[in-house]
Design goal:
elongated, 3 domains, 5-stranded antiparallel beta sheet, Leucine-rich Repeat Variant, disordered N terminus, mainly alpha
């Protein structure tokens, strides 16, 4: 249901009329648009709702203005059409025949409807209420009118005797035609093909031709029946009331409408009823009970994963005060409680249960639901994230947490100590999106997590949150059992601005087990040492260049070659001196590696200090 905010206040009463268009016909079409809008709002919100009353007032003002200019407005009523001057001015879609006011008048036997100048607002209101079958009240009072034996439109209008609204009925046409109940003969005589301005005249003329009838009496009788005089009412119950011929296409259309109505979703039907009650109910106890029912509706929709329907319901409840500005404070608190209750633990658990048990569960509307929760929902959303099995559903909850948890991130921090790796990695991804250095310390603690993938993700995140500082804890990761974690730690140290004295490295690079590591890892370690320890590590590398050993000779020679390569990249005076020593005292392969490294160091010095070279 559209909320009151969505209404645009109606169409202008005097729209611009294109050249060649009859201004009266254009005015009539505009009036019917206003009538259609007023009827829809009355059916949706009830006739006493401010929105419906505003649209009714717009229609009445426009109709009064039209009648002041043209004195009368007459329509010929077809099955689902209104005609004016042989032109169809109202024809809704076939799918909405049941909501068409043309069809309602036609089904009750009205064949011509005329509004006359001097129409008062109370009579127009009575006519519209009779048309839609809404409860009638005496004008100016709150007391309902006594119930009629027959509640069709014509009977209601006859009972009121509206002087400025006249009707011509199918029954009158049948009586005047002289063909009794034979509707086929009535149709072939062309009574329903005459222009709208002549239908009343045709009726009066035919009544005057009846044997023994007098024109004045017949006309008076017709006028009496059209305007609602009490003398005409008993004739409606005589045996010659005209039926309706239904063609095969019309039968097919009615069958289709019945099938569509039968196939209508029961949930949506119930929601429509509750919405109508919400828009129109005046009893405070009933409204209190209604909001309790809405709470149960939210539970049912959550359990069944009807996110899009739930989104529509919540949007409606958000606009409750706009549609019902007369709500009491206690009812407003009930509405607020409906939204606060969205994050109840049992409801979040129900969401997770549904998503996990439904392999291809649709997630449309779920994010909107989660974003309607406040920051108090963060612990529950974290539990929901940890319980979900599908990555797509996890991503939706993470997106909601990204917005909601910014002011309540403590549950996120506590979750980093959880033993479930997928859950912790999702939390690390969430912190990455925030890019807040305040999370560096809790992320650093995650380096001790038992799952290697978590430790690797934590290292990468830590490099963005803390790209410099003491690298001691990163160096300690050289003892990690997983090579990818060790390589990631060395990459972080090599690319950042960390410091780590050589004594921190020594326990890892001076033991025999270091020789067994891969060439890629040893190269990464030396580059990280160059970045963090610099000249402090030169004695260790120089020793590798000049060391002679009969054990692990090939592996030690590999270390010496990597040492020469690293010293060349370091290119400090102490590094160059160490390379010169290795060039003199090392083996053939090492001397050659030192020569190449000295060349690299020279080029790097020239690039770093071009002024010194030029001088």
């Amino acid at each position: 249901m559209d909320s009151a905010k969505s209404f645009d206040g109606g169409a202008p009463l005097a729209p611009l009329i294109p050249a060649g268009v009859d201004p009266e016909v254009s005015s009539v079409k505009q009036l019917l648009k206003l009538l259609d809008k007023a009827a829809k709002s009355a059916r949706t919100y009830g006739t006493n709702n401010p929105v419906a009353q505003r649209f009714f007032q717009q229609f009445y003002d426009a109709l009064t203005q039209h009648l002041e200019q043209y004195t009368r407005l007459a329509f010929l009523v077809q099955r689902n059409q209104l005609c004016f001057r042989d032109e169809v001015v109202y024809e809704p879609e076939r799918e909405v025949t049941g909501d068409s006011f043309a069809f309602k008048m036609y089904s009750d036997g009205i064949r011509e409807l005329t509004f006359h100048q001097g129409l008062i607002q109370a009579d127009l209101s009575f006519f519209l209420e009779a048309l839609w079958g809404t409860p009638l009240t005496e004008a100016g009072t709150e007391e309902p009118l006594p119930e009629e034996d027959d509640d069709d439109i014509v009977t209601r209008l006859w009972a009121r005797n509206l002087s400025a609204i006249t009707l011509v009925t199918a029954e009158e046409l049948a009586r005047s035609s002289g063909f009794g109940n034979d509707e086929l003969e009535l149709q072939t005589q062309g009574y329903m093909n005459g222009s709208v301005a002549s239908l009343r005249e045709i009726l009066d003329r035919e009544q005057a031709k009846m044997p023994g009838g007098k024109e004045s009496n017949s006309s008076a009788e017709g006028d009496s029946r059209a305007t609602g005089a009490g003398t005409a009412r008993p004739q409606r119950f005589q045996a010659n009331v005209v039926g309706y011929e239904v063609s095969q296409p019309e039968i097919d259309a009615l069958t289709h409408e019945i099938k569509m109505e039968t196939a209508r979703d029961a949930t949506l039907y119930i929601l429509d009823i509750l919405t109508a009650v919400l828009a129109s109910e005046q009893s405070a106890p009933v409204l209190t009970k209604l909001f309790e029912v809405w709470d149960g509706v939210l539970d049912a929709l959550l359990r069944n994963g009807q996110w899009t329907v739930l989104e529509t319901v919540l949007a409606l409840l958000q606009d409750t005060e706009a549609v019902r500005p007369d709500l009491s404070d206690s009812h407003k608190q009930q509405v607020a409680g409906l939204f606060e209750g969205l994050a109840r633990p049992e409801r979040l658990k129900a969401i997770g249960t549904y998503l996990n048990r439904t392999p291809h569960a649709k997630a449309e509307g779920l994010l909107t639901l989660l974003l309607m929760m406040n920051k108090n929902a963060v612990p529950g959303l974290c539990s929901l994230l940890a319980s979900l099995e599908g990555s797509m559903h996890q991503a939706i909850v993470m997106e909601a947490l990204q917005t909601i948890a910014t002011d309540n991130a403590d549950p996120i921090v506590r979750g980093l100590t959880d033993k479930r790796p997928v859950y912790v990695r999702n939390l690390l991804t969430l912190i990455t999106r925030w890019h807040d250095p305040r999370f560096a310390e809790p992320v650093e603690k995650t380096l001790r997590h038992p799952e290697a993938t978590v430790r690797r993700d934590a290292l990468r995140l830590l490099a963005t949150l803390r790209p410099s500082g003491n690298g001691a804890k990163l160096v300690a990761l050289l003892g990690d059992d997983d090579e990818t974690v060790r390589l990631t730690a060395m990459k972080v140290l090599a690319n950042g601005h960390f410091t780590a004295a050589f004594p921190l490295w020594s326990p890892f690079v001076t033991v025999d087990e270091f020789h067994e590591r891969s060439s890629a890892e040893k190269r990464a370690i030396y580059l990280a040492m160059k970045q963090t320890a610099a000249d402090e590590a030169i004695p260790y590398w120089q020793g590798l260049l000049t060391e002679w050993s009969w054990t692990h000779r090939k592996k030690k020679e590999e270390l010496a070659l990597l040492a020469a390569e690293t010293l060349g990249k370091l290119a400090t005076p102490a590094a160059i001196a160490a390379l010169e020593v290795g060039q003199k005292k090392g083996g053939t392969a090492i001397r050659q590696a030192c020569t190449i490294a000295l060349s690299v160091a020279g080029r790097q010095q020239r690039q770093n200090n071009p002024a010194a070279v030029n001088s």
